[in-house]
UniProtKB/TrEMBL annotation:
It holds the Pfam family Adenine_glyco. Keywords: Glycosidase, Hydrolase, Metal-binding, Zinc. It comes from the Bacteria. InterPro entries: Adenine_glyco, DNA-3mA_glycosylase, DNA_glycosylase. Its EC number is 3.2.2.20. This is DNA-3-methyladenine glycosylase I. PANTHER family: DNA-3-METHYLADENINE GLYCOSYLASE 1, DNA-3-METHYLADENINE GLYCOSYLASE I. Signal peptide: none annotated. The keyword Zinc applies. GO terms for molecular function: DNA-3-methyladenine glycosylase activity. Zn(2+) binds at C8, H22, H179, C183. It comes from Lacticaseibacillus zeae subsp. silagei.
Length: 191
């Protein structure tokens, strides 16, 4: 007999990918630079679209962007025309170009001895911000911190780092915990 787990409202879906993403990834602190680059890239792709659309294309994005290995992605500028012909991904030139640019920026950080993980987590002083959301309607689409982070990232060479994209990235990477307080994942992250 299985026990029903209560999820955030958006995680209560028949879409298995969405449910798995909610249960196993979203909001869980990530300290893997490759994974963080992937999450930032996916949030860039999601801008103006539904998250489900991006999630359904995630495997194709991983294939197209060398499993988000930033060292490989930074070499992909000559492949932009090919990427823009790939029907399996979102073919938006600004977004594709931003991902490649961001790979270059992460590589420059790494070349200076700064890991993308440390760069990102410094914005929250290396500790996730614990919000206490009781309803999905309370979740903001951005915050002052996300605005400051996005501006600094742009200044440091990143592209497509508007406040909404950055706040979504912060949520995905676990820099903020925006799971509803009744959600089983919130309970795990509060411990």
């Amino acid at each position: 007999m299985s026990v029903e787990r209560q999820r955030c409202a958006w995680g209560e879906t028949d879409n298995a990918l969405m449910q798995q993403y909610h249960d196993e990834e979203w909001g869980r602190p990530s300290h893997d630079s490759r994974h963080l680059f992937e999450l930032l890239s996916l949030e860039i792709m999601q801008a103006g679209l539904s998250w489900q659309t991006v999630l359904n294309k995630r495997a194709a994005f991983k294939t197209a962007f060398a499993n988000f290995d930033y060292r490989q992605v930074q070499q992909m500028t000559p492949e932009i025309p090919v990427l823009l012909q790939n029907p399996q991904i979102i073919r938006n030139r600004l977004k594709v170009t931003a991902i490649i640019n961001n790979a270059n920026t992460i590589a420059k950080l790494a070349d200076r001895g700064e890991d993308f993980d440390h760069y990102v987590w410094a914005f929250v002083k290396n500790h996730p911000i614990q919000h206490h959301i009781t309803s999905h309607a309370e979740v903001p689409n951005t915050t002052d911190l996300a605005k400051r982070m996005g501006k600094q990232m742009k200044k440091d060479g990143f592209s497509f780092t508007g406040p909404v994209v950055i706040y979504s990235f912060m949520q995905a990477a676990g820099l903020v915990n925006d799971h509803e307080t009744s959600c089983f994942v919130y309970q795990l992250l509060e411990k």
